[in-house]
Specification:
Length: 723
């Protein structure tokens, strides 16, 4: 068989072959193709131009209502397509049939314009009024589980689920509402004008959902906007296997998107916002689920929003079925919670009001990685074991910044929080996270930190609650934390209590704990480490973190002996760029300062390690400056006449090879202009020249130095070929 290769592929093969010979490398993995799903019938739904008497099999014969879709039976491979620009109100979508592996049933869109919208909410038009305060009334509302929306956004009101103070009839302010249970009436004051000047929608009922997969399996839901649900806005459950929800917008409900007792669920690239309780939930025994590339924002923002207000939750309180083998990755989570103490006025809340970016609770083998979490009012990531053991949790590669915005805090307010009241939180790994510019403090004895570990003992007051069967249960706290690793994390420029808090009560268990190869830097001269174990407290300030004598945290506790306590040198923190600074003259001290924890890529997808060792933090520096910097260091010992020409030649070739190629648009073998391909070839040729420069420099480079430089050259070549 004849194999044809382009000039580009031959050059790539030549460079890789030379480096493989130099380093004795072999075994390059190859990617695999995708599997095409089987086809099926397509059914069309048009809220304006459709008719349920039609066949539904073409846009001109489209159905009209959600009720028609819910009552129909579909075959594996079928598609149900909703017309863009249309809205379906009053009835939520309920999936009626299951697909099979390789032939899922798809609910999606057709046409042009805005995504199709589906909501269980109904238009509210029968308003009476206004009264003297400008309030309007809607009668015969007998259920207090209400979502009231004006122009697609929730309004502040006194839903029966909230225990916080809410608006009252007779004293409403613009954009608020109140429910009077005795009168079975909703009172509403528009943000402006009259109700007729707005689109006002109302959802009533604790079980109201705008979409549900109804326990069915092999379902794809994509490119649909769901809003206005109460129980959940879009519900995947009870049960079901291989459901994918992608590219949907889910908003303006009490809860957002939830998977419950499912298997192999994929929640991908959705936007979730304007939710009271939680944006995404993978709940109660769901296994092998994945929440990835979602944008979750503005959760728990209204004054009466009550509960835990989480961005993403894996687990659930006081349930006996643990989620297992779930992954939360590449999500952006921001603006979770609010300063709810303002206006609480001593009233009990429905939940802890913890407002974390991500919560993992009572789970097994859950991975939280490569997420960006910022501007969250309390915890960045919260780990717990509230009702069952939480085992084998991995948290790595996350960027967590500007966490902890509360004016007053009685409890959780940390970058990464681990709380064990009872049960076990064992085999937890916290690797290569960057936690920066947070404000970690509490008004109580429970101190907060960038990484905060709290294990309760038997001296703590018992807690009483009702389980899922309605039985009253009393638990005496006795927590256990075994086999916990904290490595390669950057903790920098945070304010508040501490960088690391270890509070282990008498009788609680802490064993096989290792913290090392971190960079803990505080520039305000504050405290760094709080360590309270079995009644003995040690506090270390930011000048006594790493040291070889008594009084230093690393010496006294035998932890973080390879760690740093220096400015990590972010590229541009003012612009939220937390990559590591690198130039031909300055390198971040976190570069190559970590240890191997088994990671192969960073938050950007760059290879780990790039250099002689992994970097500390979420980002691995990958570029020419590390190669140049290392070469300059080795060349420093050269005789003066020889040094300038070699260094200049080397630096110029590396920079030209990298910079020329990074400014091209070529990303695939058959894409880009001939000019771009020629630049790519020239870049690789320059790297090939560098290989020979290394190979012929026996007079001034040692074998070990040549090996290290050649490794970096291989990594740089691989990086160019990825672009």
């Amino acid at each position: 068989m004849k194999i044809l290769r382009t000039k580009k592929s031959w050059m790539r093969l030549l460079v890789m072959l030379m480096l493989a010979i130099c380093l004795s490398l072999s075994g390059v993995p190859l990617g695999s193709g995708t599997v095409k799903a089987q086809g099926g019938a397509a059914y069309y739904v048009d809220a304006t131009g459709g008719n349920d008497a039609n066949s539904g099999t073409s846009p001109s014969q489209a159905w009209q209502t959600i009720q028609k879709v819910n009552q129909a039976t579909f075959a594996p491979g079928d598609s149900i397509l909703f017309k863009r620009g249309e809205v379906w109100r009053g009835t939520g979508l309920v999936v009626s049939s299951s697909g099979v592996s390789g032939a899922p049933i798809t609910y999606g869109d057709y046409g042009s314009g805005a995504l199709p919208k589906i909501t269980v909410a109904s238009l509210a038009t029968n308003w009476a009024g206004p009264d003297a305060n400008g309030e309007y009334t809607l009668a015969n509302i007998t259920n207090g589980n209400i979502v009231l929306m004006e122009d697609g956004k929730r309004l502040t009101g006194n839903t029966s689920m909230s225990k916080l103070p809410g608006p009252l009839p007779g004293s409403l302010t613009p954009g608020t509402w109140a429910w009077n249970s005795g009168a079975a009436t909703v009172y509403y004051k528009p943000t402006s004008g009259t109700p007729a000047d707005h689109t006002v929608e109302i959802t009533v009922g604790a079980a109201a959902r705008s979409g549900s997969t109804n326990g069915k399996s092999y379902i794809n839901i994509q490119n649909i906007e769901f809003y206005g649900g109460f129980a959940e806005t879009l519900f995947v459950g009870f049960g079901g296997d291989s459901v994918t929800v992608s590219n949907c917008i889910i908003h303006s409900g009490y809860r957002g998107l939830e998977a419950y007792r499912t298997q192999n669920v994929q929640l991908l690239n959705n936007e979730i916002y304007d939710i009271n309780y939680k944006g995404i939930g993978i709940m109660d025994g769901s296994t092998n689920g994945r929440a990835a590339y979602n944008y979750v924002h503005d959760i728990g923002k209204l004054d009466t929003d009550d509960g835990d207000m989480e961005g993403i939750l894996v687990g659930g309180g006081f349930t006996q079925q643990r989620p297992s083998y779930d992954i939360v990755e590449y999500n952006t989570i921001t603006n979770i919670g609010r300063d709810w103490y303002k206006g609480k006025n001593g009233t009990k809340s429905l939940g802890t009001m913890s407002a974390p970016g991500i919560t993992v609770d009572a789970s097994n083998h859950v991975t939280v990685r490569y997420n960006k979490i910022h501007d969250v009012w309390r915890d960045g990531i919260s780990l717990g074991a509230s009702s069952a053991d939480a085992m084998y949790t991995q948290v790595y590669g996350n960027l967590i910044y500007r966490i902890g915005k509360m004016s007053s805090v009685n409890w959780t307010n940390s970058g990464i929080e681990l709380t064990v009241r009872w049960n076990k939180l064992d085999h937890t790994q916290i690797y290569n996270n960057t936690i920066a510019f947070g404000n970690f403090f509490a008004d109580t004895i429970y101190k907060q930190a960038a990484i905060n570990v709290r294990v309760f003992g038997p001296d703590t007051q018992p807690i009483t609650f009702k389980n899922s069967q309605g039985q009253t249960v009393t638990l005496q706290p006795v927590g256990s934390l075994d086999d916990m690793m904290i490595k390669n994390n950057i903790i920098a420029f945070n304010q508040g209590d501490y960088m690391l808090n270890m509070t282990i009560d008498k009788g609680a268990v802490l064993s096989n704990f290792v913290s090392d190869y971190n960079d803990m830097y505080r520039n305000d001269g504050g405290n760094a480490v709080f360590w309270n174990q079995n009644g003995t407290t040690n506090i270390y300030d930011s000048n006594h973190i790493i040291g070889s004598t008594a009084g230093y945290y690393s010496y006294d506790k035998g932890q973080d002996t390879h760690s740093l306590a220096v400015d990590p040198l972010f590229a541009n923190a003012a612009a939220d760029d937390y990559h590591l600074l690198a130039s031909s003259s300055v390198l971040s001290p976190a570069i190559d300062a970590g240890t191997d924890v088994g990671l192969t890529q960073d938050l950007d997808g760059n290879p780990v390690p790039f250099g002689t060792a992994p970097d500390i933090g979420a980002y691995e520096y990958a570029g020419p400056d590390l190669l140049i910097n290392m070469f300059n260091k080795y060349a420093a010992a050269l005789p003066a006449p020889q040094k300038p020409s070699l260094v200049k030649e080397y630096n110029m070739k590396v920079n030209n090879a990298f910079d020329q190629y990074m400014h091209t648009t070529v990303s695939k073998e058959d894409e880009g202009s001939d000019h771009d391909k020629n630049i790519h070839d020239q870049s690789l040729q320059k790297l090939s020249d560098l290989f020979y420069l290394f190979n012929e420099s026996d007079s001034w480079l040692s074998a070990e130095q040549k090996l290290e430089l050649s490794k970096l050259l291989l990594q740089l070549t691989d990086l160019l070929n990825r672009k």
